[in-house]
Fold this protein.
Amino acid sequence: MAERPPLVSVITATYNRSHVLRAAIASLRRQTHADWEQIIVGDACSDDTGEVVASFADPRLRFVNLERNFGEQAGPNNEGIRQARGRFIAFLNHDDLWLPDHLQSLLSAIETTRADMAYARGISIFPDGTRRLLGAAPGGSYKPLADVHASLWLCRRELFAEVGPWRLSRNCWAAPSQDWLLRAWRLRKRIVASDRVTVVAVHASRYRDCYRQERSAIHEELLRRLENEADFRERELTAAAIDALDREKSLHILPHLSGLARALSYRLLLLLGIPPVLAKYRLVSWRRGAYLDRIRRFRGLDVKKRDKK
């Protein structure tokens, strides 16, 4: 008898950061919803990633190491989608962590709203220790105003057949994840937001040379707190709220003026049919893929040579 496929396939693209990947996997294994598989796709990893995955001795984990290095998430994520067996597909970046109710709350959101996709709210932790909230959703649904990071997503499997695969960065003005999300939005797919904060993001794009230095202390500390602090979410939300208040008070009237200008510019861009999140990328990118090239340099990685295919 064939093995019953899991309800959710969790895809994790990774490259030579086994020290932080360990915490991401551990956070997934603490999910209250346990009917999942994790497909960890190495972007031609040359470190001990395979051994780290095997050390969990969990049959729900599967490591696939690509022969070709793409230098970005798009290639590995597309391979993960190809191998996924679940009715739903989620993404967990190798340097992010999920709170235990992440999958359960997103499955509930999709079931309740009959949406094509749901995404969680999250907290991003910066190198200076400050926190910011992720996953803006005016009116409870996706609008292309700001990035919605892939670790927040849960999608119906058939959505990828309709929207298509992730495009490589050389073919995108925006980050490949946001490019895919914009394509789903343009197809008028129903994308809703959960009312739960269930993701903690430690973005590599904020940490200089993080691929050259084996630093995992922040991930280990976050995992320890997730496992031992019943009020972890409340503490993090309080810290994020205090940081937001401090930023506003330090600038006095400027936040109000900048907020008004931002709201007016967003409205104008939408009236013109231009997604504001895409306009943001175009302001800082002089060609397709330039944004990711800059991030790779900051992280301590070489910029990939571009082929013409």
About this structure: The CA atoms of residues 127 and 207 lie 7 Å apart.
